Amino acid sequence: MPHDIVVLGAGMVGVSAAWHLQARGHRVTLVDRCEPGRETSFGNAGIIQSEAVRPYAFPRDLMTLVRVLPNRRVDIRYRPGALVESAVPLLQYWRNSAPDRYERLVPEYAALIRRAQSSHAEMISAANADTLIRKEGYLEVFRTVKAFEAACQDAEQIASRFGVRFRALDAKALRRMEPDLTERLVGAIHWIEPWTATDPGALVAAYAESFKALGGQLVRGSLQELSRKGEGWQATIDGKDVVARQVVLAMGPWSAQWLAKQGPAVPLFVKRGHHMHYSPRGGAVLTHWVLDAEVGYLLAPMRAGIRLTTGAELTAQESPPSYRQLAAAEAAAREFFPLGDRLDPKPWMGGRPCTPDMKPVIGSVADLPGLWVAFGHGHQGFTLGPITGKLLGQMMDGETPDVDMGPYRVERF
User: Fold this and answer.
1) What pLDDT is attached to residue 64?
2) Is the separation of the CB atoms in 40 and 380 below 8 Å?
3) For an engineered disulfide with 399, which of 99, 170, 284, 394 has Cβ 3.0 to 4.6 Å away?
4) In the chain, where does the domain assigned CATH 3.30.9.10 lie?
């Protein structure tokens, strides 16, 4: 066979898997219809998180659900048809967000998050990508005293349990750090540890170039068919067959449908996000990544301009675009910080692949030797790509992984 391993998908997760496997001495071919980092990994906040030790839970209190129902919020929107189509996984998501179940999930989720930054560091160094990284953390800012005090208490609990570092800033301290934000803010949490990427797509591309420098092969094309071929696998890419001993399925929101063709079903659903870049107005300056916590969008000073990223829209992966959520976020952001003109020809949009138990799917597939999966990272694919690739490499080489991988196996569904 001309290839040891074929990795399908060149987002952050797929590129990271390919990089680690190539570094381990395998002959790896990385396949995607786009250039690396141009799909979901391109449009995100660009934060390499270490403090996000708890996954996004489904809201369970009645007051929050009532506020979501009118479908006008900035942080979360939905399309009724998608709710019907994804009713089963969403119901499972709601059940797993119950306090007792959720508490069992947190340590399994945190085990990946707390190892993510060191895995990025290795790849950043190899890719000479330091110029894309800032190590100043980010700000989670608040408009009301009640929300700020509750968030500070929550941060204290996280810090005590997981060793996460933060600073609570009052309004004056916040204004010293970001003088051009609205004066109506009461305070902020400065999460000290996270790193930020000034161009997330470029960071993925840099990792891909490092993979190629190690001897890896990059193939541009669309996957048309995936099937068993003797003791290995055959992937048909734009009419050409690529045969390998092993295949890694790392296609983000498209992964579940390709896995289902082989038999196993993963109840994946999609949270769509949008972004747009803006110029600052009137000489305003934004220094840090800033999350408007009570409204639900983020502003990030990136190379392409100030990026506004929306919350989540529950929708089908292939549904037509709707920019109402972005428009609502932009309206709120213009009162928050002096944004100028839009800089992109049109808004970017992409789907985050989410599982009902909020954990990614990583590992081998029972009864399908040579087939491996790495997807379902939800909002954290950009953060978790390198640690996923490292753990996958350990498993594929028969080593004991740094983390117990049982909680992430396909068969849990």
Assistant:
1) 86
2) no
3) 394
4) 63-96+131-195+268-354
Taking only the tens place, the pLDDT of each residue in 293-327 is 999 999 999 999 999 999 999 999 889 999 999 99
Please provide the DSSP assignment of 231-292 as one string. Answer: TEEEEEETTEEEEEEEEEE--GGGHHHHHHTTS-----EEEEEEEEEEEESTT----SEEEE
Buried-exposed string 177-195: b where 16+ CB fall within 10 A, e elsewhere: ebebbeeebbbbbbbebbb
Where do the CATH 3.50.50.60 domains begin and end in the chain? 3-41+202-266+357-412
Q: How many angstroms separate the CA atoms of 130 and 331, rounded?
A: 34
Q: For residue 258, which of 212, 296, 223, 208 has the smallest C-alpha distance? A: 223
- Could you tell me if 373 and 410 are in contact, meaning their C-beta atoms sit under 8 angstroms apart? yes
Per-residue pLDDT at 2: 55
DSSP H helices in 280-368: 324-336
The domain over range 3-41+202-266+357-412 is classified in CATH as 3.40.50.620: no
Q: Distances in Å between the alpha carbon of 12 and those of 50, 61, 107, 235, 363?
A: 17, 34, 23, 21, 17
On the question of pLDDT at 1 being above 70, the answer is no
CB within 8 Å of 213: residues ≥ 6 apart: none
Question: Please, which residues bridge with residue 305 across strands?
Answer: 302
Helix and strand tally (H, E) in the chain?
A: 11, 22
Q: State the Cα–Cα distance between residues 108 and 355, nearest whole angstrom.
A: 14
Longest dimension (CA), the chain: 67
For residue range 119-135, what is the model confidence (pLDDT) as tens digits? 999 999 999 999 999 99
For 93-102, the pLDDT digits (tens) are: 999 999 999 9
Burial 329-352 (b: 16+ CB within 10 A, else e): bbebbeebbbbeeeeeeebbbbbb
Taking the domain 63-96+131-195+268-354, which CATH number applies?
3.30.9.10
Q: What's the whole-number mean pLDDT along residues 190-195?
A: 98
